[in-house]
Amino acid sequence: MMDQSMVLLNAQVQFLETKLAIVHIPLHLYSHFIQPILRLLTLSDSTDEVDGLPRRKWAYPNAFTNISVTTIECSVVCPRPLVDDLFRPLIERLDAKAKQAVIISNDDFVVIQVGGEGMEAGQRVLDLTAPLALAGISIFFITSYYSDFVLVPYNSKSTVISALEERGFAFEPVSNGHGANMTNVSSPLHSHNRNSSSSSSLDLQPPGTPPPATVAEWQTKTFSTLHRNDILPLVDEGLELRTCAGYRSDSPDIHDAIQLGIFKCLLTNPRFMSITLTQTDTVSLTLDQSLLCNFPSKGEGILLQNDQTYFAIVFDLRKLPEESTGIICGVAGRLLERLGDEGQGEGAFNMSYLSTARTGNVIVREDEVGEALEALLEEEALSVDNLDGGH
Question: Where are stretches of biased composition, namely Low complexity (predicted)?
Answer without folding.
Answer: 186-202
